[in-house]
Specification:
This protein is mainly alpha-helical. The protein contains 7 helices and 2 strands, in the order H-H-H-H-H-E-E-H-H. It has a domain of about 90 residues: Orthogonal Bundle (DNA Binding (I), subunit A), CATH 1.10.30. Strands 1-2 form a two-stranded antiparallel sheet. Bound molecules: zinc ion. The site of zinc ion has 7 residues, from strand 2.
C-alpha cells in the first residue's frame, strides 16, 4: 500500500481490500496457527494501537465518505427529518438555543464542546418514541452522540 488508507481513492481502497481478502483466504490455516500462538501479544498490540489512534474511521474520513456519496447523505437527512416530523410532540428550536442553555458542555461526558462541533442529542431517542422537544434534547459532542446511538438513558448506565 503506497499511501495511508485515508488518502486513497475509493478505487485504490477497493483494490487493496480485495487483494488483502484474497491473501487472507488463501493463507487461512497459517494465519489461524499464528494467531493461536501469539494471541496475547496480538491483542496487546491492537489495544495499544486503539489507544494511540482511536477508532479506525477518522472524522475526516467520515466526512469524505459523505461528500463522496451525496445521494446517501440526502437520504439520511430526509430519514432524520421524517423521524423528527413523526415525533408525538414537536417543538421548533435552534441548535444555538440548546447550546446556550446547556452552557456549551456536553451533557454526556461533561466536557466543553464548541458550538460548531456540538449536536442535539435526543435523551429518549426518536426511534424509541422520544419527542423532539427542548426537554428531551441535550447538548452533546459528536463522539458521545455516535457512541450513544439509540440507547435509552437507563441502558447507558448499564
Ligand atoms: Zn461528550
Amino acid at each position: 500500500m503506497s499511501q495511508p488508507w485515508a488518502l486513497q481513492t475509493p478505487e485504490q481502497h477497493e483494490r487493496h481490500r480485495l487483494a488483502t481478502k484474497k491473501y487472507n483466504d488463501s493463507h487461512k490455516a497459517e494465519r489461524r496457527a499464528y494467531y493461536d500462538a501469539n494471541k496475547a501479544s496480538i491483542s496487546a498490540y491492537w489495544k495499544k494501537h486503539y489507544e494511540e489512534h482511536g477508532p479506525r474511521i477518522s472524522p475526516e474520513g467520515r466526512r469524505r465518505w459523505w461528500r463522496a456519496n451525496p445521494d446517501k447523505n440526502t437520504a439520511a437527512v430526509q430519514r432524520r427529518r421524517a423521524r423528527i416530523q413523526a415525533s408525538p410532540v414537536l417543538e421548533r428550536f435552534t441548535r444555538h438555543e440548546i447550546y446556550v442553555r446547556d452552557g456549551g458542555i456536553c451533557q454526556i461526558c461533561r466536557q466543553p464542546v464548541t458550538e460548531k462541533a456540538s449536536v442535539q442529542d435526543h435523551i429518549y431517542p426518536l426511534s424509541r418514541g422520544g419527542e423532539h422537544t427542548r426537554a428531551n434534547i441535550q447538548l452533546a459532542c459528536r463522539s458521545c452522540n455516535s457512541h450513544k446511538r439509540d440507547k435509552l438513558p437507563e441502558e447507558l448506565v448499564a
